[in-house]
Structure formats: structure tokens, C-alpha cells
Amino acid sequence: MGAQMTLADESDEYRAFVEKFKPKKTTDDCYTPQPIYDVVLDWAQARYGFDRERVVRPFWPGGDFECESYPDGCVVVDNPPFSILSRICSWYMVRGVRFFLFSPTLTILSSTGRANVMATNHIVTKCTITYENGATVPTSFVTNMETDGTVLESAPDLSDAIQAVDDELVKAGKVQLPKYVYPDEVITAAKVNWFCAHHTPYRLNARDCCFIGSLDAMGGKGIFGGGLLLSERAAAERAAAERAAAERAAAERAAAERAAAERAAAIRWPLSEREREMVRMISKREAGA
């Protein structure tokens, strides 16, 4: 009888064969690392003042959010399957359940659903979260707990808090997408993401905009993630926010250039041959020679 095959003896072909039968992860399997969830919960609780003891997390492997128990006064703070985010928001809105949900940043307006986009607030961050399955997803948040009609805003403080924790866990990647320039009368989540990256506060009220999926000039090509068409006043405010963000970006570049110039201009003292010999002697002593 031949010897039993060990793990060390497995061929590349066998490992590839086994790999085919492993379940594939999607963005619906993006389970949140606990330290990141804690940061999000802290921010949401400080903002909306809900009781942390009444927080519900219905989204877990094999769970059914529609069968979950939602006591009076509860708040859902969780990372839902992104593919059904619109359905989830609608289900909660109809039943009066308060929520603060994770959402993919660049499609946050369309992911919420056309029926919900003007009745919820879309809180855009610049952070890319590295989830437990290794997926890196630019992530923002959608909530129905706003009371002043805000439908879109940047949250630099939440961005910085999440990114600091994520950077400690693992170096996050970046998603590269084609860049388009829209008129001042159009705002997208990507643009608010840019505001956030340059610490520029921005808020937009539902009365000043409406949802659009494309522009006539685009010839049938849609706005990635959807957008909001702005009133004249809101367009002026959007343009002002863009100027402020551009000025901050320019200031950041100038500061980086000054720092680089100062490093380049710094006087670098050399070691003498006597000092180098001392370094060699220390190195030998350290090596036990």
C-alpha cells in the first residue's frame, strides 16, 4: 500500500482544484472589524444621542433582518449587504425603524433607492475600510435620524477616526475610477468625498435638490452612483465649497513642498574617519567579535 499523501506533498493542481469549491466572498460578505464598528458607533451615538443599550445589529451570516426583533426606540447601527441596501432602507422607513447603515461611498445616492434618497441623509467619508474578508471598500453612511432635512454632507471627523483605526489594522487600498467634471448644478458622492478629503464641511437640504441618474448631454451614459441636481443657490454653495477645498488642497501641497525643500536644504554633517572607525568598533562589539 502506498504512503498517505501529506499536505506538503499536495500539488499546485490539487490546491487549485480544492480552491474551486470554496465559497467566494462578495461585498455582501464585508463584515466589519470590531474596532472600526466601535468608532462608527461612538460617532453616531454622540451625534444622535440614542441609547447604546437599544442598538440592534441584525446583519450577520445566515441572518434575516426582516425576522429580527425591533423593540420600540431601537436603532440599527450595522453594515448591511450592499446589494440589497435599497430594500433594507425601504423596509425600515415603512416601519419607522431608525438606522445608521454602512454604504459604498461612490454609489451611496443610488444604493439608498430612489424612493428613499430625499428622505435620508448621506454622510460621506473619504475612508477606505478593510473588511474582515480582505476587501477594501470606500465606505460612507446613510441614516434616517436627521431632523433638519439634510440629505448629503461630508464628515471629515468621522473619516479621520475610521482611517486612523483602519491604518492600524492594515494598509488600505484605493479604488481608481475615471474622472468626470460636472457643472456646478450637479453634486455627486465622489465630489463630497473630495470635499471631505480636504476637510471642507458641506451640507445639502432636500428642498434644494432632486435626484438624477444622468445628464442629457451624456447621451444615455449614467452618472456613476447617481447625483443631485441643485437649485441656483445650492449650486453657488457647492461652487464655494469646491473653491474652499481647492484652496486647502493647494495649501497642503505648498506645505508639503516647503517641508521637502527644508529637508533638502538642511545641512548634513559628515562623519570623520576617526568617528567612522569608532562606529566599526561599536559594530564589532555588538556582533560579539
Characterise this structure:
- The chain is of the alpha/beta class and 289 residues long.
- The chain has one domain.
- Helices cover 38% and strands 18% of the residues.
- It is built from eight helices and eleven strands.
- The strands form two sheets. Strands 1, 2, 3, 4, 5, 6, 7 and 9 form an eight-stranded mixed beta sheet that branches.
- Strand 5 and strand 6 form a beta hairpin.
- Helix 2 packs antiparallel against helix 5.
- The longest helix is centred in the last third of the chain and has 34 residues.
- The chain is globular and about 80 Å long.
- The chain starts with 11 loop residues before the first helix and ends with a helix.
- The relative contact order is 0.10.
Helix content: 25-40%
Biggest β-sheet description:
8 strands, mixed
Structural category is alpha/beta
Number of strands: 11
Provide the β-strand percentage band.
Answer: 15-25%
Low-confidence blocks of residues = 1-10, 20-28, 172-178
Give helix and strand order, one letter per element, not per position. Answer: HHEEHEHEEEEHEHEEEHH
Based on CA atoms alone, the radius of gyration comes out at 25 Å
Number of structurally distinct domains: 1
Calculate the terminal CA-CA distance, rounded to whole Å. 55 Å
Morphology: globular
> How many separate helices?
8
Kindly state the mean pLDDT as a whole number?
84
